[in-house]
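Supplementary notes for students who missed Thursday's class. We covered one full example, reproduced here. Read the sequence, then the structure, then the short commentary at the end.
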Amino acid sequence: MTSPKTCIVIPARLASTRLPEKLLLSETGKPLIQYAYESACRAQLADAVFVACDHPRIRDAVQQFGGHAVMTDPNAACGTDRVAEVAQKLSGAELIVNVQGDEPELSPGSIDLLIEKMRQNPDTPMGTLATPVRTAKDLNDPACVKVVFDRNGRAMYFSRSPIPYPRNWSEELLTQTPALFYQHIGIYAYRRDFLLKIGTLPRSNQEKTESLEQLRVLNEGYAILVGVVQEHSLGIDTPEDYRRFVERQKKRDSFNI
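Structure (token representation):
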């Protein structure tokens, strides 16, 4: 396999608990995985895009729309391991970006912003993105992972709880500029060597408790750079999420007629 310097890898698993085989859903005329792939391909700073597949049906769907599919171990423990398996074959790669297949509306500009930040901070092994939290509903939703970072843009902690926790609550806290609360967006960029090392790091108690893999990295003393974008990326986890995505897509298509 050839080795571009910066590549995007989309981990794609056939099974999913709340929305069975969601990456193959195609009510819009295209499988969900295709939207994530096409958005990744529009990123200006990436040299190549691969889909790390765990099942021949995912591979076949990707190949059908002209994407680059790579089969990986179907028993891989998580998406990061699947991405690392592809990275292992890209010996000349320097930067690997993990884009989630179930976040089809992540913009190419957001991907480019993360890549640019990693290039500007060559000593940082890992990076991700965040966006302001502007509603109390999101702030208190455990499925909405929050992050706090220091003045240099390096993560201090990730949590399913509201962080920082306001001792005295006021709705005005949600409208501050710059924002006080930030939602973590599920995209990661890694130096290749560090990505291959993550699987060897021990799981911390914080990771086990919060079920957040990035806490393993912080517990071992490594930095995670956080870039800020203003737009939310809506993940597809439930039938209702997918229904709303289909509705948004139909509206976009009607505007483009």
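Commentary. The mean pLDDT is 94. The two ends are 40 Å apart (CA to CA). If anything here is unclear, bring it to office hours.
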